């Protein structure tokens, strides 16, 4: 078998394959023999149909087409093995089928051409001297006190209020009835009795909470509100309504004291100061971790931008399928019946939206893999793989999740290799840390430019 290779764009390889006359004759004879054994022709028993009758009944073109089909797949597989090619997915026929049928003659050499997706060639730039900017995240000093206040709110008890009007933060019980302001028509579904409402921003329709603030227990009041644009009920969008509200019960939150007892009961720390210190440390570690992530993302983005990686469609399709599978798992974990939720149109839309992420993930992973190939010290040791595998195995067993040991080993090895490569790149790169919020993403810049262009001239 003669095989000629030609590189094509998008990480494809063209193969021109020439099959010897002995194989073409053998394929044709096999087709004839199989038809002889299986054909039902009146006047002849199976297996006893004369060759001339068989050819006349089915026609030479049909027999030749069947012989070509008999040759293609095995010949491509043999060529891939002979040339030691790492093929991705199935082959695509490049030759015109009609032309192949015309050229095919049993007993004579036969040529055809196919294309294959192959692993992409990764051409790295100067990855040892990357210069990037990354946002430095710092812990907000107010985070600790905000968190402690939230915990107090969560642990608060409600106590009856009788000696003052309703105020923001209170919890009320109300009766209400809503009518359209223009027609005084009763709004369907806009009535309730003994409805519990917390007086806080974002609760109920805008204007309702503000209208209740200042009401006294037992008071009835008419409150005017306007339904927002894009309201769930289109018939009410941007319409004004009058709500007749009666305040039937009023309670205020009584917050627990922020002291050592509270720290021990809720925060599981001996003292309040110990809890504060633990929270400060936690927020600082989270900020450091996010800064590290920002640095790695900036480095990898710069790495990909100066690299040449042509991705084959087979690889992109597989990555899209992986992203979809992960998305479906997340949806199902939320208790949603994915079989009813996911329509054909929705899946196609998800595929289209997932493509940029799939391409980005593949480019990043391939660039990092190429660096680990060129820098031998970045490959994890057997001891590192063993320890990490044991750690992951325990986590999966605790969650009672099934796993394949071979795939677990592959995942651990690749994860460790990527982790070591990223750490090595951080040491090699020059990273300028800038304040959080300084760097804009491309989408944010585009939105800002669009907004500026749409502003009327003064």
UniProtKB/TrEMBL annotation:
Source organism of the structure: Dactylococcopsis salina (strain PCC 8305) (Myxobactron salinum)
Q: What is its EC number?
A: 5.2.1.8
Top-level lineage group: Bacteria
Q: What is this protein called?
A: Trigger factor
For molecular function, the Gene Ontology terms on record are: peptidyl-prolyl cis-trans isomerase activity; protein folding chaperone; ribosome binding
Region annotation Disordered: where it falls in the sequence: 434-458
Reactions catalysed, semicolon-separated, are: [protein]-peptidylproline (omega=180) = [protein]-peptidylproline (omega=0)
Q: What class of enzyme is it?
A: isomerase
Gene name in the database record: tig
Q: What is known of its domains?
A: Consists of 3 domains; the N-terminus binds the ribosome, the middle domain has PPIase activity, while the C-terminus has intrinsic chaperone activity on its own.
What InterPro entries does the record tag this protein with?
Answer: PPIase_dom_sf, PPIase_FKBP_dom, Trig_fac, Trigger_fac_C, Trigger_fac_C_sf, Trigger_fac_ribosome-bd_bac, Trigger_fac_ribosome-bd_sf, Trigger_fact/SurA_dom_sf
